[in-house]
Design brief:
It is a multi-pass membrane protein. It is found in: Membrane. Keywords: ATP-binding, Membrane, Nucleotide-binding, Transmembrane, Transmembrane helix, Transport. The chain crosses the membrane at residues 39-66, 94-114, 176-193, 199-219, 285-305. This protein has 645 residues and is an alpha/beta fold. It folds into three domains: 13-361, Up-down Bundle (ABC transporter transmembrane region fold); 371-461 and 542-549 and 570-638, Rossmann fold; 467-540, P-loop containing nucleotide triphosphate hydrolases (Rossmann fold). Helix content is 59%, strand content 9%. The chain is built from 22 helices and ten strands. The strands form two sheets. The chain has a six-stranded mixed beta sheet, with helices on both faces. A four-stranded antiparallel beta sheet has the order 2-1-4-5, with helices on one face. Helix 1 packs across helix 12, helix 2 packs antiparallel against helix 4 (90-139) and helix 6 packs antiparallel against helix 12. The structure holds adenosine-5'-triphosphate (ATP). Adenosine-5'-triphosphate binds at residues 147, 391, 401, 419, 421-427, 467.
Length: 645
Amino acid sequence: MSPRGKRIADTDGAFSEIRAEGERAVLRMFREFGGKRKLHFALGAIATIFARAMELVPAYVLAVAIDSLFFDEQAFAIVGVPTAWLPTEPEQQLLLAAALLAGAHVSGALLSWVNSWAWNHFAQHFQHEVRVETYEAMQHRHMGFFDNKQTGEIMSILNNDVNQLEQFLTHTLNRAIRIVVRTGGMASVMLIVNWRLGIVPTIVIPAIAYASYKFVVVIHPKYRAVRAAVGELNSRLENSIGGIQVVKSFTNEPFEADRVEGSSENYLRKQWEAIRIRIVFRPTIKVLTAIGYVATFVIGGWWVMFGSPHPFFQGTLTAGTLVMFLNYSRRFMNPLRDFGEVLNDYQYAEAAGERIVGLLDSEPAIADRADARELEDVEGGVEYRDVWFGYETADGEGETVLRDVSFTARSGQMIGLVGSTGAGKSTLVKLLLRMYDVDSGSVTIDGHDVRDVTLESLRASIGYVSQEPYLFHGTIRENIAYASRAPSDRDVERAARTAGAHEFIETFPDGYETVVGERGVKLSGGQRQRISIARAVLKDPDVIVLDEATSHVDNETEAIIQDNLQDLIEDRTSFVIAHRLSTVRDADTILVLDEGEVVERGTHDELLEENGLYATLWEVHVGELEGIPETFAERSTGTQPTDRE
Ligand SMILES: Nc1ncnc2c1ncn2[C@@H]1O[C@H](COP(=O)(O)OP(=O)(O)OP(=O)(O)O)[C@@H](O)[C@H]1O
């Protein structure tokens, strides 16, 4: 339950931690993003008020025409217009009535156009600005936020929530004004003209409003279930289509089809439950409307034909007035029917606004300190001192991944990081880039704690080739050039040569203009890696981090890349993570990690002499050992040793 009391709309828990509370979110966003275009908004509001008011005119003119022109029961009179101004000839009176009818319809249409133009202009620009700013705020959040969210969830803020606000501004506000002006206007005219008869149709207004509100309360959980079912169905489809290669290789098409059918069936069931309620609502409102309408017809009809049906109904009632009442009482129910929807949409917009405001307001956990300084003239000396770290998890129960890690990399040195899978090698280098902050201890670069320098200058000085190279949809050239603002073709080619990529790029018919496909799917793993290395080379960083950067290329290509990279690595500090130990053989220091701890350190020769874990891994690597001994296997997998030869 919301702290603001009863909430009938979205209470999606996925982003509860960033939900802003306190001030009304929609109002706040309206002020922040709508301020610039408040004139458009005001114009739209005024236009819609007058457009709705124009809808009251035709029934009134019809009543006047019936009573004064067609049946001559009353003198020709129009509310608010002095009699002296009105024509006396019946033909002219008829023409005036026709002109009023035409005027009301034409000006109503014109005002509707002004309203749509002004509000759509307002809402579209509003949503554009909200989306762009929210995206900005989103991408500055720390990695832990992205680790604990699915891409779809994050996208839902940028798409669904922003659209929800736009919908609210264009449609819901219009509807709200329509309810107030049309229903209120019609009820007021009826009560002013003949309040005794006016009571008859208006008495059902509270009943309709209540039924409409009740409907929303009941349907809301059903719609929520539908949304959850849609989400599940989408995830299922996304997984099945995304993993189509695995599906095919395991000939699991029938299994996947069954799973999709299951999800689709669940969606159908949830949708049907909502439909069953929805299709009862409209007839209920129609019956309530009909009660008011028929009662007005019976009482008013009797009154016109035989005089007052009851002492309460005093005076006379003309046929024209009755026609106007019947016309109004039938039509003022439609906007009322929307009453519950308006409440519902408002609640949705509030929930969406709270998430957006929460994102815009929250300070990213990893951000520049107020007194952060630029990292300049980087020499590349790196020191980890007593570093402890564990990932933050969604439930806050993070396990320690790095334990008391200390080492120094002098400027220009190459540090090799080896160890079993999951030992914490990638995590260790991510702390240097400040993708995450240490729990305790410190990471310094040229003696400056990474938390004391600006993120931009820190990351600008480090070239990072991650374990899973990510290529953007676009050409090879665009992907390499991503490292730099506007590199020349020669620079791009030089970087590609250093990374051992130029040769294979040249074999493609489109060369550097080859489109790599989504995430680079049209390239092999090794080709993707080389483009990603070229990207880092082009950046010309002070410190370079290669996380399994050549794991997908063959030995020969790796040797060529290493040879090429020699120049790059020679005079800058580098961190090289590798399972293939020959990659780090020449490192100045090799750190052997095991379960987050540095268990051995030294040069290749020193470590061989030590005859510990590294020496064993090396023997396996060069083929002198067929398998890793039980003691090490047990340590690196966390399982009981099995019988081995
Ligand atoms: N984003 C994350 N959130 C939570 N836990 C993580 C995250 N990334 C890694 N881990 C966990 O941290 C531990 C260390 O992972 P890390 O990727 O640093 O290992 P690694 O030594 O680089 O392994 P590999 O050689 O397989 O790449 C693992 O237990 C892993 O499950």
